[in-house]
Amino acid sequence: MSRFNLEILLGIILVSFTTVIVVIYAFNEEDRMAEEAEAQHARAIEVGATVYENNCSGCHGPKGEGILGLCPPINDGQFFTTRLEEVGWSGSLEDYIISTVASGRATSTRPDEYAGQGRPAMPAWSDEFGGPLRPDQIQNVATFILNWESTALEEYVLEELATPTPSPEEEADPIARGQRVFLDRGCGGCHTIEGLSAGTVGPNQTNIGTVAETRIPGMSAEDYIQESILDPSAYVVEGFQDDVMPKNYNELLASEELSDLLAFLLSLR
Ligand code: HEC
Ligand code: HEC
Question: Whose CA is nearest to atom 6 of ligand 1?
Answer without folding.
Answer: 56
